[in-house]
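notes to self, project folder thing:

trying the whole complex as one job this time. last attempt i did each chain seperately and stitching them together was a nightmare. two parts in total, labels are on each line so i dont mix them up again. if this works i'll redo the older ones the same way
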Amino acid sequence: MNTNKNSYTLIYAIVMVVVVALLLALVSSGLKDIQTNNVKLDKKKQILSSLNIELDGQDANSLYEKHIVKELVLNNKGEVISEKMGDAFVIDVIKENAKVEADRQLPLYVAEVDGQTKYIITMRGAGLWGPIWGYIALNDDKNTVFGTYFSHASETPGLGAEIATPKFQKEFAGKHILNDARDFVSIAVMKPGQIAEGQDYVDGISGGTITSKGVEAMLLKSIGQYEAYLKN
Amino acid sequence: MSKLFSEKTKQVFLGPLSKNNPITVQVLGICSALAVTAKLEPALVMGLSVTIIVAFANVIISLLRNTIPNRIRIIVQLVVVAALVTIVSEVLKAFAYDVSVQLSVYIGLIITNCILMGRLEAFAMGNKPWESFVDGLGNGFGYAWILVVVAFFRELLGSGTLLGMRVIPQAVYDAGYVNNGLMILPPMALVLVACIIWVHRARNKELQEK
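result (full assembly):
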């Protein structure tokens, strides 16, 4: 068979593309349900991580049901739009951030750990190479940090990627997001050894300055949207 | 068995591990050797993923080799690799979500790995499926062991850990030892690869250029 003819080449290319497209479509649609469930489960795990709950070998679904007592949807004036369970969970923060501030729906998870109420805020920002995101849990004074969770899409391993380690995340516990005059100032992420005036701060990551600053900007912007709710 | 492991097949498998190593001799796949070797764990996973994908892509291309039109053969190879990588990443997302999150960017990087295209073009296009499969395994392992060696030294000297576990005791730090931050940065991977090439050529005189 002459495999160098134009018609053969053309038909070969078309058949190949159709077969591969079909195959990929089949795989993708066949696995979609399992994947969406994984994504949901992973989100629950991330939220629970910010509450410093040990997840190893545990069923995240039942832990989530046990600890998360309320899921609220807020607007930026601090008013509760919806209290129905599930409404807040499906909010896509990326889409909300694209809207003007007054239209945004803000998810807030209310949790109970050892009889104490905690408020969990969803955060999203930019690192050096791609998006970073996380959850921050506040004590019932809506000021003191109880725990945090950070993750990233593609920060440099060993440098910026260290924000996903417990060592970095634990630094935030006990810090305050309001200053003494109860103004919202967020928490600064400083180069190790430097200090921030007028607000609480944690040590950033050596060699991961841009990612560290990305975390700082994310804290300021994301928590800032909840300011009205947190202050009353 | 004798047919499966003939002298030639053995050579095809063992060659890439040393005398014909994809990284140290052919200098292919350097890009990913820089990117994923700051820590040992991603290096291991990357080595394993590349091995699996290069082996199977080799088999598929070898099966198709007599039908592929010469003028679009690179495109066909690319489509096969990209389709394989996409399927692997989808399956991981469904059945090993944690692993797929950790790998995130690396899986996509496999498509651009020069070793894959190199092996498909140089070997699978002209050899039978079984030999191609063995060739893929050999090159994958040849690639993986270099990555692991580089990552071992970079993680040990750069972070003082191995696979995330602390191996340099606190007492050493108290005595004034500090981690070498330079090790975590990509240029050190090049220097380490160069050191491996140096040792390798010193031991295999026939590889030295005149």
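what i see at first glance: Chain A touches chain B through 28 residues (CB under 8 Å).
need to look closer tmrw
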